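Researcher: I'd like a structural prediction for the single chain below. Treat it as a standalone chain; there are no partners to consider.
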Amino acid sequence: MNSVFLLIILSLYLAILFYIAHWAEKNNDSKWTNNPYVYSLSLAVYCTAWTYYGSVGVAADNGLSFLPIYLGPIIIAPSWILILKKIIRISRVNKIASIADFISLRYGNSRFLGAIVTVICLTGIIPYISLQLKAITETFHVVSNTPVNSYIFDDITTYVAIALALFASYYGTRYADASVKRKGIVTAVAMESILKLVFFVIIGVYVTFFVFDGFDDIYQKASLLKDFQAKNTIGGLPQAINWFLLCLLSMFAIFLLPRQFHVSVVENNREGHVNTAVWLFPLYLLLFNIFVYPIAWGGNILFDGQEVNSDTYSLLIPQLFDNKILTVLVFLGGFSAAISMIVVSSIGLSTMVTNNILIPYSLLGKLKNAETISSKSILNSRRISIFLLIILSYFIYRFFGLNYNLVSIGLVAFVIISQLAPAFFGALFWRRGSRLGAIYGILIGFIICIFTLLIPYSIGASNSESTFITDGFLNIELLKPFQLFGLDYLDPIPHALFWSLLFNWVTYFAISVSFKGNYRERNYAEMFVDINKYSSNHENAFIWKGTAYRNDIEKVLVRFLGEERTKRAMNIFNIKYNVDQDVELADARLIKFSENLLTGHIGTASARILISSVVKEEKISLPEVLKILEESKENIIVNKKLTETSNELKIITAKLQDANASLIRKDLQKDEFLDTVTHELRTPITAIRAASEILHDDDEIPDELKKQFLQNIISESDRLNRLIDKILDLEKFETGKQIIHPTKNNLVKTIEKSIESLQQLIKNKHIAIHIESKQVVNAFYDEDRIIQVITNLVSNAIKFCPETNGLITIQIKEKNNFIHTFVQDNGKGIHPNDFVAIFDKFYQSTNQNIKKPVGSGLGLAICKQIMEYHKGKIWAEQNAKGASIVFTLPKNNPIENI
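Model: Treating it as a single chain, here is the predicted structure.
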């Protein structure tokens, strides 16, 4: 492909990434930038050009040896629920912006330890960034079919390095506080992760199913190649130990690599996002590695006997079949894998260099001398650091050659970074771990690493004829770098990892046990190990003794943060801890709060030194520390119990308020009930009294009229009797004194019995009544009570049916273990707002929307009680025309007498 056209494609691709980052920064609250999937995909920055090209090369040359580097993270991922969340919580509480700050803070804000960690990271990562740039150059020339040019301005990587430096320095240093989330970078990296996976899967599918006829076809043809069986077996115990150590190495790397710490910890918005990453990231790695083997051995088959770089098989195969589009897509995927690593690593390293070397060893003197360092100067120092790191990596690639492949340099970087493991994991789980133990452990482990790995690789790179590798240091056989102390069955990488970490762990443990750390170390040890106890009020757990004035601390903060931000921060502190702003003396909480404010800007060690310069601190003995910590624990437990008690009181208060409101409602209902009962009883009594007085006072009333008055007395007496019976029935149901006797009955027959007593009313209003189910439908119920329910529902339906063409429909349906009965009419219907209220006592008396029909207003209330006694339900529901009341009865299980 024409190199100019490929350059145009690269430029467009970089422009798109710039746009995505810019959009994400402007829309940082969007669901597209702040969600667990973006976070999980950003973790795939782990998959660099090593994954895209190097894994294929390893699989082609050494078979299954590429797997351990991916098995480690997959195996350790479930532990993120506990370990990674703990790291995130510690970092959020203390505003930690890098792994150097993390380790430095745990061991008493040690400036020297932070610098050591930074140097270790620089030593391991800069050469690896160089290899990413080399991969970009080599693959560009493979795709464009052009020779590598030695002239610096004809090298495409020159311009890529400058573009990446601009991108990283702009979007990675937008905030002076390095702990602030960079949504633009994270979103761009997540997008690159999607693209590189999709493009790799596409080339995998193409090779497997279009170039070859599936996995079996590749296996059958590859098995005929030389050394196929030997390369594709794990081997015996020595090889298994090699695999184990490589898996262990990758487990450490997923926590300790600066780029992984940055995206997984510093850029984490919510701890809950880890729950998604636990399954999505391993799935991502599995998907990526499904096609590594087919591409690798497909390349071995196609290029058997040819001198080609196996790392570039994913480009050479589509190029062999003149598939230019697929070749460009694969190149863009590899380009994405490389630049995401370069950008995130350079941002993380620049923060470490600034906060742990430049400021504490250079700029801090200006601050202590009351000079102001603006946020802009800090940002500029970080931008310069990013530029220098990328340009330094570029020059290493240009002038030192780095003749080793991607995997070799990548594994060397992993071994170097793994020297942080004892200090890092000891910080999380071991209170006794000390600053001296961490420093000497890292230094000795790094020296062993230099001896067993860096020196031999450097000698190999320079083609020296030195006997250092073959005969050992000073010709001592036990000091052979690849067979240290006679251990000769491990490969160079596992060999270096084993000895360096062994010496590192032993030194860390021995010194930590032998020499006690100072009170600050023990203080932070407690806060790190038991972060769950201190996360909500960590300032309370900070131990400090001495004299400090609030005004002096504020002056320090103002010099760096500015007056407005300092004032806002102090107001937050006053509100959080209920502190009077006029108090002059500062306590331990304010010291810790102030250090945290500065940590994101200048690092943990510098923040401590700066605050210490304006306060007079007194030394505290270890017993005092332990006593204060114990008291702090007790206070936290008491505060927790008080909070729980307060919450319980709030819940009880809310319940009491609800109960009081319910009592008020019931009291009003009682008053309304008594008023309504009085009214309902007075009506027939008044009618009886009026008729009786007429009969008593007038002896000359005609016999026919006298009979009419007597009939009125009888009917009103019956009405009064029915009303009293209903009130008594309702009272028995509500007090639990009512007893029902359920038996197995045919519900259709019961409905027909109920309708018989209403036939005259039905005929009088010319209403048609239709029972849709004529078959036997058995259910368990007290027949007399269900007749009472059906009679009431049908009577109501008769009342509300229109004067002409009235229709009442009764449906019976079986659903699960219940029989559903629907009583429907074609009257005016029930308003949805009244669906619940119609089952209240005397509901009609308060319903002003309709004319009150003849009745007591207790019928539906009694129906509801009867159905509840039957373990059934009754309710009103929407109907196309008219009202619809539904009740349910148990189908199979008999109801015991209540």
